[in-house]
Amino acid sequence: MDFAGIGTDFSRRAVMASHLEWVKQIARVQVENGGLMGLSRLLMQKIEKTVVVTSDQGHVLSRHIWDNQPVVIQERLSLPQSVAASTEMTRGISTFGGHKCAYYCWPIVNQKKEGYLWILTEKENLSAEEMENAEYLRSALLVEIVKKQEQLKLKQYLRDGSILNLLFNNSDQLETMGQVWGRNLLITHIVMILEGQTKVPDHGLTEVRTKAENFLEAKYPGTVTGMIGKHLVVLFPYEKKTREKDGQTNDNWKNIPRQAYSELQEILDDVKLWASVGSIYPDQPLLYRSYQEAKVALEMGKVLGKKEKLTFFNELGAIRLFYNQRKQDLRDFFEETLGPVLKYDRTNDGNLLLTLWHYYASGGDISAATKGMFIHANTLRYRLRKVEELTASSLDDQEVRFNIYAALKVGLMLGIFEV
Length: 419
What we know:
Elements: H1 3-31, H2 35-47, E1 50-55, E2 60-64, H3 81-85, E3 90-96, E4 99-109, E5 113-121, H4 128-167, H5 174-181, E6 189-198, H6 209-219, E7 224-228, E8 231-237, H7 255-267, E9 271-277, H8 287-303, E10 310-312, H9 327-348, H10 352-361, H11 366-373, H12 377-391, H13 398-414
Helix pairs in contact: 1-2, 1-4, 2-4, 9-13, 10-11
């Protein structure tokens, strides 16, 4: 009798039984909707080591630290080059929250990388059985990640549709819609529009909207958000506060979007953010007007090249009146006012227009203007006299000063010159 063969067969059966039991445990967690947290906890308990699941960008989706292992898992893991470049399991040594330890990392792949499964250990290597346990779990994690993505897409689709209907007054059931989303849609709202550009070409706020929305909803309860095109639209609930004695307004509503913009730019540190805010209107149907104003302010803020990338519509002044004018009319106005100056700059490779802009931007302060352009005060005065000569007008005339400033704004808006 081949006792060796019997032993081998018995061992094989034992391994298969162990694998089957592991698969059953995984399935049980999924049936009970344990999700990524339940699955990663199951693996941690099985192999008695720290288990982390991240997105393809390293954002932590689930973490379970074994037996007080001295490691701190940040919200985002820095992906080693070997991990980012590989479609197979990689291993190495890295620092996690200031603690150096060995890691094993499996990419969770569908048609593309959807995330990573990490196992962190102190010194010992993983056994063959532990490696197999991780491999089995990886498929289950893929299912959960894809499911989570689909749920998020559906939620965002419904949210985007709701905010579109809200802004364009397409819904006569605001109270019911608000109850579904847990929001009071009948009160006054501040309308803010956000546009972003990441370091990755052609990537904007769509790729980071979840992080932005989660932050806004947590920090500003009652906020309504949604994407319209490439813009993230944010509606902040607003209640006007008054002084108890004289009944007058005692708060600055602009502080809400200013603070939110500042905080968002801080947490989205790899995104260049532009933002704009429309005027406040007490009636919900006028949200559409505020939204349109915010759109104008966003474009004007970008065109005018403001250092502060948050623009309020009611701070644009007279320049907002130009936005809906025909471009040809605006060009004619610029030519009539500053055409000779533009021609001189182009013919002589000059910078009279830029000098004018710095002069006006500094409020007519010669000292401040020269510092901004790094030129001598006499040089600035010479250039201003040249402008007066070319335009046959005096910069001391208030009407002339107004027209020139307006023409400069128009020139920036049309891209005739840049600052």
